[in-house]
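Q: Could you write out the predicted structure for this multi-component system? I'm mainly interested in how the pieces pack against one another.
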Amino acid sequence: MIQKAIIFDASTIITFSMNGLLDELRKLKEVFNGKFLITEDVRREIVDKPMKIKRFKLEAIGISQLINDKVLEMPASVNVNEDLISKKTKEFKDVANNMFEAKGNFLNIIDSGETSCLALSRILDDKGIKNIIAVDERTMRMLGEKPENLEDLFRRKLHTPVTLKKENFKIFEGFKFIRSSELVYVAYKKKIFKLKNGVLDALLYAVKSKGCAISGDEIREIIRMDRKG
Amino acid sequence: MKEREHVLKLFKETRNALEKSDVLKLKELSNQTIHASSIDQDSDNIAVAVILYSLSKIIGRKDYQKQKNWKEFYKIEIGLIDKIIRALGKSNDAEARRDLTLMRKAIGKLSGKLKLYIQDVFRRAQINKASRIYEHGISMEKTASLLGVTMFELAEYAGQTGISDVPLAKTGGVKKRINLAMEMFK
């Protein structure tokens, strides 16, 4: 019986792939007593789409191999039906995309791959499977952890009043998020990386440079934490 | 076309800026469409943002102007801008939209290095504008889909910007998140 799972958004797999860290992801899976899951919508973003583009075909092949080797698995591996994910994905997407209003338009803030991770997380909760979502892009994390920050960001960036349906915040409560930065930290602590001197610092800036939404301040805090032991 | 009056004004100013080779003005005009693009996600507005930004980059490269097809390309683009201004002035959105598409397709008529250069400028402009919309708070996947770029391209570009350093993006304690990850691997 599977007790725990990490649900990967496309953004996190992309960070690992673009940094040449897919082997390390494989090794992380070996020390994880649970499942690494991706949804069908996420698979499309990280395999099907890049497979058609020469520049990213190698990344797509590498990720596809992880799926073939069952490092990354589909929800069916934990007996979760695709139809149920699709239904719940639509529910989350509809709420998220009808939450913030500017100039008479509801802002379409989030897409199917991202919301499918939320849907799968809720389904796993219902099945009693402990889970977290690994997401490197920031909007979904902000929506789940501090939607008021997202509202503030829209106000500042769009230079226009933004109204929001606060009652919709509730549906996004309770999700747990990590990023590739926390995963490389775990890999570093578990001595998955052969390189030694300054490798944590290098890894954290590497994932940041390929899209992981972590600030320089947060990286410095992680380094300080590690030095203190 | 949403915000037709605004787009018409943009193209009139673009015409003037092109005549003066005013790169900064062109860049500023392209940025004016980003707020609207983030809000209404209208494909016309997004196309305008990409085209204006591309023009600012193309005009800024004096070496492109030495290429053999340059005059032909410039003439086509100016001609299409004039047609868009006329079409929008008559509220003929369909015609304006067609000419907007032709501005990009004009590259196909070029040959040699200039064609490759300009194709590359347009692709980079798409990624740049995607990054700006992501910066405005729209998710990475949604933005990539709107601009027709891959998440790989957007992630790579966004990673080189200060987007993740915005204080509002910090939504939880570092230690707590690290502990959460470590706990999962116990």
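A: Regarding packing and overall arrangement: The two ends of chain B are 55 Å apart (CA to CA).
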